[in-house]
Amino acid sequence: MSLFFSNCIYVAARLARRCLPTTVPSGLRRLLPFLDGNFGASNGAGVVGLYSHHLGGRRPGWPGGLTVLEVGVGATNGSCYELAALGARRVLALEPYVALAVERDAAQLRATVRAGVGAEQLAERVGRIGEAASLETGSVDCVLSNSVLEHVAEPERLARELARVLAPGGFMLHVVDYRDHFFRYPYHFLQWSRATWNRWLNPGDLPRWRLGDHRAAFERAGLRVEILVAQPIPDAFARIRQSVHAEFRHRSEEDLATAYGVLLVTWPEEPLK
Q: How is domain 3-266 classified at the architecture level of CATH?
């Protein structure tokens, strides 16, 4: 398919998507079959497994005994229950936009019960909050997020707030999906100016940040960033490379082409392992 033809499809679909709510009902999603991928975590163990995979052996015993803040948990606290079941002392589910789906949440709580650790005990260790400002300075040992940072309108503001609540010796792990969320076209959104994107095509929650933006936001907050993963989709990026808008051309190709990134964030004095 030529870039011109795919752009025609893309623009038409983006204009239609802009008219839909941020959370698209499953029936409407069938009309946009290339809108796929993350649609709210329904498997808390899977999300926690992803965090554990990327941490590797860097944090032995994680999350045992830690106070954990997970940002943007969505409609349920499933991953937070899983963290509590694995030994976290306290888990805070930060979700400012999505209401708790009570029945789904209860089902995930029941599914997380372990031998010797009942649902009531897990629920007592997990709290749901609407803003990080409610947390005390230095009160959190670990901050996590999965497919959240790409949607944050003000990453520097969030980075400062997360730095405020992060305890000395604490760390953050952020898994970020840098693709255009019409996943069939992972880089098409890099072809338009900011003005055009925001006026016509942005669904409202896709600011088009790249890996370098998030690294800079945390570094300006006084933190150190280690990039654990910066994975591109080479063939897909090659198809739009020459059409990248001038507003993005000051960036490196690696920064533009990163489709999946994982950032480990620590205080500067924390040794890298």
A: 3-Layer(aba) Sandwich (3.40)
233-257 core/surface letters (b: 16 or more CB in 10 A; e: else): beebbebbeeebeeebeebeeebbb
249-268 per-position pLDDT tens digit:
999 999 999 999 999 999 99
User: How far, in Å, CA of 41 to CA of 225, rounded?
Assistant: 26
Structure token pair of residue 190: 């890099």
Structure tokens at 85: 């079941």
CA angle, 261 as apex, 156 and 136 as ends, to 5°? 40
* Tens-place pLDDT, residues 5-39: 999 999 998 998 887 665 555 454 445 545 544 44
Cis peptide bond N-terminal to 186, omega within 30? no
Q: List strand residue ranges (DSSP E) for the chain, in order.
A: 67-71, 90-94, 126-129, 140-146, 166-177, 224-232, 258-266
Question: What ranges do the domains of the chain cover?
Answer: 3-266
Q: What six digits make up the tokens of 58?
A: 């860097």
Interior angle at CA 253, CA 248 and CA 254, nearest 5: 120
pTM for the full model? 0.92
Determine contact, residues 150/176, Cβ cutoff 8 Å: yes
